[in-house]
Amino acid sequence: MANVSIEIYERMLDHIRAGTTDLADTMLAVPAAHFSSEAHAAHERALFRRQPLVVACASELPEPGSFVTRTVMGTALLVVRQADGRVEVFLNMCRHRGGKVEMAETGRKRFFVCGYHGWSYEREGGLRGIPFEASYGAIDRACTSLIKVASEERHGLIWVDLSSRDGIDLAGFLGAEADRELATFGIGDMEILFERRYDIPANWKLVMDGAYDVLHPQFLHPTGVGKLVESNVGVWKDYGRHGQLFTARRRLAEIVRSGASPEVAWRYFASVLVLYPNALVIPAPDHYEFWTVWPSMTSPSECHVHIRFLLRPETATEEVKARVGRSLAILEEAAINEDWPMEETIQANAGTSPEVDFLYGRSEVSCQHLHHQLRRDLAGLDV
Ligand code: FES
Ligand SMILES: [Fe+2]
């Protein structure tokens, strides 16, 4: 379970007493075109294809031979647990004439057989058999293994780097602080209880913005989340590329304003760990939400959201599962009926008025962070 440190607790109490929130140094203007321009979206896609991205939870691959197939930024991948417990990621592409070697989304296999002409591959990726081999001509088996993509399993999540065939320095990518926070979550010991996928007609950054926007709950969710979470009070921990937002439950604010000193307790807080560029971990008392938000490969105006609800299997009583089910219903209610429809209006406006700037105030430090980091990375991108 995530911890609320004394530092976070005291910063939050100070903000509640003073009516303040963490501030960025300056306001940030982001061109609306960054949400609607085809050229900008193409740059972002190139960026995504050159850095670590989470493709699966480790628990989706529980034993040797367990696999999942995923299409990540247009590339078909086959993610396989090996006999020694490691995970390997391959291009899901037959070395004969390029068919997918595995069509199922998930399963467990000893080897993989391409459905087109029957070439088969070991789970380690090596070519296993070729029907009618004698009539093909000379085939160099050393050069016909499935093609590996660099991957690393860390803290219960599996990352790939589509640009690399070698390793990933994931500890370096995460940095000491995000690495430490993620380690405390224990995601490796959790299983997926619910999983939902949504296609949203809005740019991926708008969905990210909405997921850690401290300013909006009381306005956009007046009868739901806005009643539970205090708007415009946040503590932002900057972890370099990544970061973590803490917000206060209304109950905490009420106790503080009454003059009492509440104990340091997780139940008074909500938080989001933002794993740049497109993943979020949201701890809750019973479960964790894990989000990945994927840019569309064809349009700046669309994205794909994948949300998993993770739970420790030993805590999964019927009562807890029912509670987590209610959390999913509350999330869907807010996201589907309130957040995403608002983001769709922004998308439409960005499309018709790309010359305007959208403003991110100093108080919107959590939302500013993604745009600053993208600006830095896109400036250094050689495409
Ligand atoms: S394309 Fe896979 S066996 Fe021919
Ligand atoms: Fe929201």
Secondary structure blueprint with pairings:
Blueprint: H1 6-18, E1 28-31, H2 33-36, H3 38-48, E2 53-57, E3 66-72, E4 75-81, E5 87-91, E6 106-108, E7 111-113, E8 120-122, E9 127-129, E10 148-154, E11 157-161, H4 170-185, E12 191-200, H5 204-211, H6 217-220, H7 225-228, E13 229-239, E14 242-249, H8 250-257, E15 269-275, E16 279-283, E17 288-295, E18 303-311, H9 318-352, E19 357-360, H10 365-379
Antiparallel strand pairs: 1-19, 2-11, 3-4, 3-6, 4-5, 5-10, 7-8, 8-9, 10-11, 12-18, 13-14, 14-15, 15-16, 16-17, 17-18
The structure holds FE2/S2 (inorganic) cluster (FES) and fe (ii) ion.
FE2/S2 (inorganic) cluster (FES) binds at residues 94, 96-99, 114, 116-119.
Q: How confident is the prediction overall: mean pLDDT?
A: 95
Q: How are the strands of the biggest sheet laid out side by side? A: 2-11-10-5-4-3-6
Kindly report the CATH topology of the largest domain: Naphthalene 1,2-dioxygenase Alpha Subunit, Chain A, domain 1
- Under CATH at level 1, the class of the largest domain stands as Alpha Beta
